Amino acid sequence: MTSLLPGIAQATHQTAEVLSLESIVKVYGSGPQSVTALDGVGFTLERGSFTAIMGPSGSGKSTLLHCAAGLDTPTSGSVRLGGTEISGLSKKVLSAFRRDHVGFVFQAYNLLPALSVEENICLPLLLGNKSVEPSWLDFLLDSVGLAEHRSRRPSALSGGQQQRVAIARALITRPYVVFGDEPTGALDSRSAKQVLDLLSHTARELHQTVVVVTHDPVVASQADRILFLADGAFAGHLDGATPAEITRRMTSLGEW
Ligand SMILES: Nc1ncnc2c1ncn2[C@@H]1O[C@H](COP(=O)(O)OP(=O)(O)OP(=O)(O)O)[C@@H](O)[C@H]1O
Predict the structure, then answer these.
(1) Is the distance from CB of 180 to CB of 215 less than 8 angstroms?
(2) How many whole angstroms from 98 Cα to the centroid of ligand 1?
(3) Which of 76, 141, 145, 209 is the one with CA 20 to 30 A from 90?
(4) How far is the CA of 200 from the centre of ligand 1 (A)?
């Protein structure tokens, strides 16, 4: 797997601030049954940063990720992604915005079984009627170690290889942010390390902003900054922390 070289990806997004959330409130349901999943959360991320979101089960991590990525709409508050206020966009416009400007890596790889590796990677461009830049595709295939397998179907790949296809697919549009929800959750430790190394190289060498939700202190220890949530509210942060420090902080926040 070749290293992701600095300077190869064009710096298409000039502003340093790429994601900004202000006073995000998310209430599910209404009346006495309603659940306040997020209660006034805000943060700002700069381009090229690698951020992990952690917190006890039910603290609002997935809800926050979904609101930040435009997969869900906050009840109130503002989400600016790549300079666009996305919280007021219609479903149709938001869906096109996500396809063109946001990358996703989930625990499930979500690859289309009938398509080859390279067709899966190029899918967001094809769906958006954008042309594929062959040198960028080759570079990504090489970077994720799958150049020799570009014509294979996902079923002929290991779980780690499939997740690397999903990472290349997330990067093909040069998105403002790549969001990961437990991206290594389904992988054995060796494949998880490869995927994690790939995400952190992506942030450091391509200046690609990465945000992951994780329960795993080893995954979080790769991030520049860890944001902690508890009961739907911001509960502090750690920068450049070790797995042991992260574990201590998580334990202090309650059961996880
Ligand atoms: N669609 C929904 N309808 C109602 N309540 C929801 C919904 N989704 C999440 N919640 C509630 O919102 C709160 C936050 O959930 P969320 O999934 O964001 O937490 P989490 O920190 O990601 O949890 P976990 O670590 O267990 O995945 C929880 O109380 C959850 O039960």
Answers:
(1) no
(2) 22
(3) 209
(4) 27
